[in-house]
Amino acid sequence: MNLTDITRETLRGLAGVLVVVEELKEEARADGLSAGALQDFVELKLVRSGLRVLPHDDWRRTPGRPWLYVSVNAMKIVSTYFFSIDVQLKQDISLVRQPDIASSCATWELGSIGFVTAEHLCTKIQDSVDAYLDLFLKDYRAVNEQ
Predict the structure, then answer these.
(1) What is the CATH number for 112?
(2) How many domains does the chain have?
(3) What Rg value do the Cα atoms of the chain yield, rounded?
(4) What does the pLDDT look like over 64-100, one tens digit per residue?
(5) DSSP letters of 48-116?
(6) Its pTM surpasses 0.90
């Protein structure tokens, strides 16, 4: 079993996920990029794909407390943004050698860096997040659909 197979296996049995989109820098918000819009986009895509988006109260009671974390860091220099995007599935884990030691950890992750003009910032970020969600959902389906 290779690393991709192991990472994919960590998605087996997920009943749903909480979605958390990191707040964005003021300059990116001023150019139209919105954490709220990204949150809505991610949640809608997951629901349309058949993966339940958990409300916070349900998430707290869900084994492993899985959450999909989306982080976009965009820094503007003149009229160009340099950005990083990270999409992670995080869930509770424990150490095999000491099961009483537990933490939340990314078990599935994709990320990238790039640059884009300010006028194309929103489209580029949404398209990139969309592509990562496609890969996440592909891996999720691979271990959860018979």
Answers:
(1) 3.30.160
(2) 1
(3) 16
(4) 999 999 999 999 999 999 999 999 999 999 989 998 9
(5) HTTPPBPPHHHHHHSTT--EEEEEEEEEEETTEEEEEEEEEEEEEEE-SS-TT-EEEEEEEEEEEEEEE
(6) yes
